[in-house]
Amino acid sequence: MSMHQESLEDTYGAFQDEQLSDDDNAAPEMQSEVEEGENEDPLQLAIDDLEGRVMSALNDFKLHLGVRSSSAPGSPTVHEELREMLQSVLEVAAHTGPSVARTYYQGIGQEGIELSCEEVYERLVSDLILPVVLEETQTDPIPAKRVACLEFFRHLFKECQKSGSWMDSTTTGPQMGPYGAGASGSHSSHHPNVNNPAIRAQQKRRFGKKLAREGEILRYWVQASISSLVEGVFTSEASEMAVASRGIIAASSSLRPCLKHIAQRIKDADDRGASKLFSPMMKMVEGVLKKLFLSSAEETAGSGDGIRGAALKFMEILTLVCSRKPHDPSQRRRSQANSEEFSLEDLPAGHPVITRESLESIAEYSFAIFRGLTLLGGQARIDENLLSDMLMSGGGGSPSAQVVSILKPAALAYLEIESSLPGSEEESAVQINVDRNNIEFDFMLSQKPYSLTLNAMSALALNRPMFFKESALCLARRAVQPPVFIEGGTLSKSGVLAISAHLKAACLTLLRNALSVSAKASDILHEASKACDMEMQADKALSMAKQANSLRTAGRAARNRANMMYTWEEGDKRKTETDDALAKLKEAKKARGLGHGIQLPKNMAEAIDLVFANLHNLPSKKPTSTGSKNRNVPVNLDFLVDAILTNGASLAQEEGRWYDRDGGAAWELKGDNDHKFELSTKFTELVSGSSGNQKPRETFFKDAAASSVDALGRIATQALNSRSAYHAQLGNEIAARLAWTLRGTKPPGATALSQALVEESVASLTDKQVTAKEKEELGVFIGRDYPLVSSCLALDFANNKADTKQDVNRTLSSHLLSEAYVQASIADQEGAQNKNYQTCMNAFVASVVRAGKLADDKPSDADRKQSAALASTQLQAMCQNFPEISPSSLRMVGGLCDIIEVTKKASDAARKNANQTVAASAALHSAKAAAEKRATTVLLTLRDIAFSRNSVDARRGAVEAAVMIAAGRLPSSQAIEDKALKLVMNVLYPKSEILGTLVTDASINELKESAKIAASKHDEIATANNANAEKNKEKGILGDNPLSDPEREFMDVAKKPVTILMALCVRKPDLIKTMFEVSCTPKADALQKTVRANMAKMAKAAAAKHGAAAIANKVAAMTGPAELALLLAFLDNLTDQKTMNQEFIDACHEIQAGKAGEDGKKDPRFLIPVVAAMKRQELVEKLPDFVAAEDKIFLAALERMGDRVARQALLYRDEPDEENPSLKGMTLCEQLVFLHNLDFAAAGLPQKRYLDAIKHCLDNDEIYSDRVVMSALDHMSGVFLEGDKGLPLAYMRTIILVCSKHESLHSFITSTLLPRLVEGKIYTDRRQWEGWMRCAKMLSPDSQQAIQKLPKEQYELYCARYTK
After folding, report:
1. Angle at Cα 825 formed by Cα 821 and Cα 830, nearest 5°?
2. Which segments constitute the Symplekin C-terminal domain (predicted)?
3. Model pTM score
4. CA–CA separation, 1084 vs 46, rounded Å?
């Protein structure tokens, strides 16, 4: 007996002694109390108490309504409330239960503790908590409670592994939980003698019980996950999706623990225990994969991203645990450090079913699916036949075979596509062209699932080197050919940009890893990064990978050196930064050398340092001068100081530049007057060339031009920096006059920035802004004729020194333009032509637009931003104040509205996952706001010009520019296009009749431009449409929808000008004729389709404003035969509940009569829009016309007839009053009845056409279903039985066709129709009787009952012909 047990017995004995009584009468009573005390087991009482607490908590959980108990701010959510209710159950199950078992155990020593623990676990956990919580997970109708139960199993498994709990993994020996306090106990440091056989047996027994408890909890956890993946549990689709998503997350959490448990079972030679968990685990995997691959698009439409994302993450974990670890020892050590990891190496061999080969095949197919999702952007269509065959054959094998049967068809769908791509060793391995338009998909990935897929590919590549090269190849291919934005697709514009950035980052991450070199994938990744304009980053990443790869196989010395370098860089970071700063300071001092704009320091010591630091920069010889002789100036310290003080100007002085040396020597006093000077005679003779020497004369004029340019530069700079408005204006006037005077002179250095800006501006002009001739004139103007003028145009804002409050009319650019306008006016008066003003204005506007573009390209540059603001301000003022402005200048002004790039950058920065600092994001948003302000200023400027100018050309140019922006011809953001559209339609058009005419003309011109583009792309669009014809037919893409990518791109662009003109057509219906004529330009089919696709809004608005009947007659009168398709589309879009009245029906009849052919034949297509509102009697009369038309017209008319009576499709309605028919439309049943009863001979129709019309209806079984056909046949047979009418000619033929097409109607025909026809004496009609016998023969022996009802003569005839 142990000392612990002895102390307990001594205490109990002392307790009994204290309770003894000396009263003899009390002996029986005390004996009964002792017996009762012995019967009350404290362990049982404690277990009963815990059971009561658990049952109370579980009952409260069951009674919870699944909604928040309080909606006050800060109150817990429903999930927090449910988790709190189950928290007490979790504490009892994981911690309180083991503690009670250790405290109230009975028996001897450790064996008593083991028995108590076993009893507590069975009663509380095994028999109560696990089954009840699983039942809640499987049956509770509230999704939130199911989710809470799923989370309970995960927390229970985690808590049970903590110290002192049922599956304690913190220590071993007697203190291992639940038999001790675990690692947290006071005796946790005591290590038992493992060589003792009794202790070894005890540990083995306890380990077996621990493994059994672990397996039981895992099985319940897996069953709970499976129950959450079953379809049809909830009536609400959102609830089912939410529970399924959490079930997949629970399955992901349980996958690794299950496999580790299975591996331990196999290691202990317990194959049955391993299979007991492996089968439900594979069923769980199968359920998750079915959610991903076998769920329909409708089922996952609402919460598809959540389900799909969770399933893809699960499949990533499945691939990792079913694949092999790397063989690299360093990576093996790192992976062993993580106890949560699992791979195939951890699975022992020996189990007959659970083998490494079966699991490895799962990993291979899963990885192939990931490659397909990455490269294609979705799951390629799975062959249903192959899938069904594999599912049927996969169930009879091992549990993993069913999982493979789901994964394999999905993988083969991609591998079939991959087989046609070049291999990884070929040169074109990365540069591939996958035509995704010709690939059918089961589903496409949106942004979140796509990001998870890319993360999975990166994780598989880095953690499983066997997948590295294929992952790198797949990511590189997709990075080179990233996804594109498609209207109506799963990826938004921001999603496309995010996925593209993710792909580039993934390629760089893989390239930076040493595996890229060892796996021979570095060339592929480097090529992809280079194609994505990341060559510099790729070079750095590749060098890091090569260095890391070399260190893996390098010796100890090399690794130590690398470690020392790393330590030095980290430890001496401050010293390194100090040394670098000192070196930079020294280099900066040297850089301030001669010819680089040096300034002599104020401190003499620093000045001397600067002089001596630049001694070696002096040339060995003095620069040669251009004059006749050189000055003999010694190179000494004074010479050097002069060079420094003059910024190197003293070294560049030329002997021939007299104005720099002694220009005053050219002047002399005039006579005795001390105040008047004149040129010296010697100088005038030298300049005039009278001395016979022409070289001084040439030098003089050359130097005179140079001196004028220098003077201009100084004047313009001083005027720009002057604080006096008067001096600034005077300087600008002189500079402007000099600039126009000095033609063909190169600009000074002071205007270099301005000149560069103007040259870039002209080079960046597009064909939409200027014509080729205008661009050529601009190039000649700034490069040859007036480079000095062009360099001064942007001087005010190129140097960021202009005052924003300065009067714009006093700027240098305004003076230059004024001077040009004066010259042009003088030329006009003289009958000459001078384009300098127009060209100068174009150059100025181009420089302003370029300044705005430069500010957008670099949002963080404050100078560019200020320059753009100054330029925009000057442009607005000049456009308002200058007397003339050309249309080309106004078109160029619209270039300021091109803010698409900066808008995209700002949108990217607004995303949460954007890799932008706060300052960069703020700069982008500020740049976007400034760009939108400039664009809005442009629109206001165009408005002011259109309102205030007297010149028709200027007003027309402003209106055309505004319309071009609204129509998208001049690129701009969506917000600016909307503003431009409002400006055109709500401001300019209603302002005056003249402006309205200009807006109309400009809109028509934009539509004509679209027609030209459509005609030029006709062949390309037709080829693409023909290539996609079969695919579009299968998908049901018909009508006015785009049939190919080229057509979709054109229709998106052409939609804007079409919309503008349609808005004008509503206000001025006469424009519809022009729109129809332009849209029907030869080969402009895409434009015509665009007009038809956007016709609905215009038609409804026109009908609301002018009346449906009136506008229909008006448009019909304006259109000719070439515009017939557009007229029909217009009439079709006029129909709705409000306009479908008798007046509109009469209008359609009038239009049909007016559009009749020369032979008087009327086109039935004009009545199709109104057949749903026409009386049935009229439709019966018009039915032969529809039958005689083409099949497409005939079926369209029938479909439209039943639009308003779709709910009565199975009925044949009787007229309430035969004399006054009132029924409208025609049900599907009535259509078949009237078609059969059609008198084709009287209508002049061939019998073949009559029969074909009926057959077309029967072939369209999606509309004319078996129930519709049954109701029609039943009605006609009933009428025949009543004797009112005979059977229609095609009746029995229809029944025979129905027998072949609808097997579901065989019973109806044999049991109802055939006997009814016998009863009506069908055998009296030879043709119908022949059809009856054939039908009876086809349905034999089911038709035997009807045959028996035949009269004797007919029965014998039937038997003689069809019975052997």
Report:
1. 150
2. 1163-1360
3. 0.51
4. 89
